[in-house]
């Protein structure tokens, strides 16, 4: 088991049974001996049986065996779902799970190595372990992390054009370009890591529920008399996300791999409690440099956002190199 209900299994992992009962399911990320990490959704009584067995162990179990599962391809991602006849077994319950647990104990280096070709889900710790590995390639990961703070030392949005024909908003002294996109830095943390994610474009709307242009326009409407070049402070809609645990789809780029910069680009944010496999886009297990999480090259707005973050990452890389 790599993740259990969004948590990395530790010696003191506690499941929120009330929340699991409300959702009627629990998601467990499982990895076979030599296969990829796969999402396994346990439903209703099977989820309840899993919780009871998980609690019954003196320490957190590491190996999980489930019988009679139904494989599905949801949003381009392989997932497994339980059936009414499914049974859950753990650690030393049966010989196969016992053998696998013994193998993990004696092969921890191999078992803990992150391979982007076969892993689409990773903890924050595994994400940066992948960046440090030799031979790693550009890849997208699904990463669960909690938002610790909104970085306010830099602008939270950018104007995505250098002079376009899009609709402008009338400001106090001039017209204000309304084509604004999120470029927001957030501090996130996992079990033991704390790093910075950069939220771009539509991912910001997925986080706040509002477009960046709308938030900027609302600010100027509420503060008449300000010039168009006034610096708009971080809006409350962003500050309200502090403390939330979200599932981020992130890109490990060439800047991360070549310069080991730890500013990670977020391309998609899932709503709380919504599994990635239930969305239309999905995340491929490994993709090339120019394709995004849905496998396409993206529209012109996405390209502008990519250039914006590449410029940001390039500046950080130069600082790291010169420092």
Automatic annotation (TrEMBL):
Domain of life: Eukaryota
Any GO BP: nucleotide-excision repair
Region (Disordered): 284-323
MF terms (GO), sorted A to Z: damaged DNA binding; single-stranded telomeric DNA binding
Cited InterPro entries: NA-bd_OB-fold (IPR012340)
Biased amino acid composition, Basic and acidic residues: 307-323
A GO cellular component entry from the record: DNA replication factor A complex
Protein name: Replication factor A C-terminal domain-containing protein
Taxonomic lineage from the root: Eukaryota, Viridiplantae, Streptophyta, Embryophyta, Tracheophyta
């Amino acid at each position: 088991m790599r993740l259990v209900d969004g948590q990395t299994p530790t010696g003191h992992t506690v499941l929120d049974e009330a929340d699991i009962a409300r959702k009627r399911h629990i998601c467990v990320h499982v990895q076979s001996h030599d296969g990829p990490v796969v999402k396994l959704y346990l439903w209703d009584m099977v989820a309840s049986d899993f919780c009871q067995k998980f609690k019954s162990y003196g320490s957190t179990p590491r190996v999980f065996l489930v019988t009679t599962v139904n494989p599905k391809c949801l949003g381009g991602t392989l997932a497994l779902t339980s059936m009414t006849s499914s049974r859950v077994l753990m650690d030393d319950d049966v010989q196969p799970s016992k053998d696998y647990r013994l193998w993990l104990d004696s092969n921890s280096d191999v078992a803990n190595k992150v391979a982007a070709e076969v892993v689409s889900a990773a903890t924050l710790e595994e994400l940066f372990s992948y960046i440090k590995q030799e031979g790693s390639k550009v890849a997208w990961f699904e990463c669960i992390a909690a938002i610790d703070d909104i970085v306010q030392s830099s602008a939270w949005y950018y104007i995505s054009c250098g002079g376009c024909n899009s609709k402008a908003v009338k400001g106090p002294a001039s017209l204000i370009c309304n084509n604004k996109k999120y470029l927001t830095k957030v501090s996130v943390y996992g079990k033991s890591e704390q790093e910075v994610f950069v939220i771009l474009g539509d991912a910001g709307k997925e986080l706040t529920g509002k477009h960046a242009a709308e938030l900027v326009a609302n600010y100027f409407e509420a503060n008449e008399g300000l010039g168009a070049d006034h610096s708009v402070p971080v809006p409350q809609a962003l500050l309200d996300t502090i403390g939330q645990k979200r599932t981020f789809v992130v890109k490990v780029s060439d800047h991360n791999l070549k310069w080991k910069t730890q500013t990670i680009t977020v391309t998609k944010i899932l709503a709380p409690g919504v599994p990635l496999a239930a969305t239309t886009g999905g995340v491929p297990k490994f993709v090339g440099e120019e394709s995004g999480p849905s496998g396409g090259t993206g529209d012109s707005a996405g390209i502008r956002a990519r250039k914006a973050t590449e410029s940001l990452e390039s500046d950080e890389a130069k600082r790291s190199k010169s420092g």
